[in-house]
Specification:
Elements (H helix, E strand, L loop, with lengths): L18 H6 L7 H5 L15 H13 L6 H14 L7 H14 L5 H13 L11 H40 L4 H10 L4 H7 L4 H7 L1
Length: 211
C-alpha cells in the first residue's frame, strides 16, 4: 500500500551535545561575540592567567560534537519528520528508498543538528512535504555545522594565545629587573611615549604576545 513501509515507529533519542551544553563549556569570561569575530586578528579582550586548559577542553567538546549521527539515529529522526510532514503518493519501496537516500546523504550531520534541522524544516510557514533530497535539509544543517566548526577553531586559537600570554608572564616574573630599574633606564636613554611603552614590562610587547 502507498506510503506504508515496514520500518519501526519513531522513538525518542537523547543527544550527547546541544548548543546550550557546548556554550556552557566555554569559560564564563569569554565574550562570545568577540570570540566569533576573533579570526584572523585575534581576541582583543584580556585573557586571564591559566586559561588555556579550559579553552582546550571547550574546543575538544566542540570537535567531539561534530561526530556524525548513526544510521539508526538518522532513521528515527527522519521517521519523525515523516509523521510531521505531508507525504507524497508513493509505493512502499519508493518510500523506503527515499529514506535510505536521506540517511546516506546526511551521514555527516551530528545528531542534535539534524534534530534541530528537522524541527526548523517543519516550522517554516506553508505546507511542507516530506523532503525528497538531502539538499532540502542542508539549508538548515549547514549553518550550524559551520558555526560549530568555526567556534572550535577559534577556541583552539584562543588557547594558543592564552599559553603565549602565560609564558610571557612567567618571563616577566623571572626577570630580575625591577620596574624602578626599568624607568631609570628609560629616563637615562631619553625614551618616552610609545617607544617606552613597547619595551616596558607589561606594556605593548606583552599585549602583542597575547594577541
Amino acid at each position: 500500500m502507498a506510503n506504508e513501509i515496514a520500518l519501526s515507529e519513531p522513538k525518542a533519542i537523547e543527544t550527547r551535545f546541544s548548543p546550550a551544553s557546548l556554550e556552557a563549556a566555554i569559560p564564563g569570561w569569554v565574550n562570545l561575540r568577540e570570540l566569533d569575530a576573533s579570526f584572523p586578528h585575534g581576541y582583543a579582550l584580556p585573557i586571564p592567567a591559566g586559561a588555556a586548559p579550559a579553552l582546550r577542553e571547550a574546543a575538544r567538546l566542540h570537535e567531539a560534537a561534530m561526530a556524525p549521527s548513526t544510521s539508526a539515529e538518522r532513521h528515527v529522526i527522519l521517521m519523525g519528520l515523516r509523521s510531521a510532514t505531508i507525504l507524497l503518493t508513493e509505493h512502499a519501496d519508493e518510500a523506503e528508498a527515499s529514506l535510505a537516500l536521506l540517511r546516506s546523504h546526511l551521514s555527516d550531520v551530528p545528531l542534535d543538528i539534524l534534530q534541530a534541522a528537522c524541527r526548523a524544516y517543519c516550522n517554516v510557514p506553508g505546507r511542507r512535504f516530506f523532503p525528497r533530497s538531502a539538499g532540502e535539509l542542508r539549508t538548515f544543517t549547514a549553518p550550524p555545522m559551520y558555526a560549530r566548526q568555526a567556534r572550535a577553531f577559534r577556541l583552539r586559537k584562543l588557547a594558543d594565545a592564552a599559553e603565549k600570554a602565560d609564558l610571557r608572564r612567567a618571563e616577566l616574573a623571572a626577570d630580575p629587573l625591577t620596574a624602578a630599574d626599568m624607568e631609570a633606564i628609560l629616563v637615562k636613554h631619553g625614551l618616552s611615549g610609545a617607544a617606552a611603552d613597547r619595551i616596558r614590562p607589561g606594556g605593548a610587547n606583552q599585549s602583542d604576545s597575547a594577541a
